[in-house]
Amino acid sequence: xxxxxxxxxxxxxxxxxxxxxxxxxxxxxxxxxxxxxxxxxxxxxxxxxxxxxxxxxxxxxxxxxxxxxxxxxxxxxxx
Length: 79
Fold this sequence. Notes:
Blueprint: E1 17-20, E2 23-26, H1 32-56, H2 58-69
Antiparallel strand pairs: 1-2
């Protein structure tokens, strides 16, 4: 039986945009200052969202901690 050659999949191009006061802007068009500010805001929003979720789902938080470091943390927000 001969091996079949897998068909090469076409490349996928992804374009990231952020919504600024001036409207949708490609990530590549951001200045270093805009990019740093955007990253800081996104990190803060992600942190708040995860904190809210795990505060409401302590069992999930415990499972996450156990999977990461053997359960060294007991409650969301403890370091």
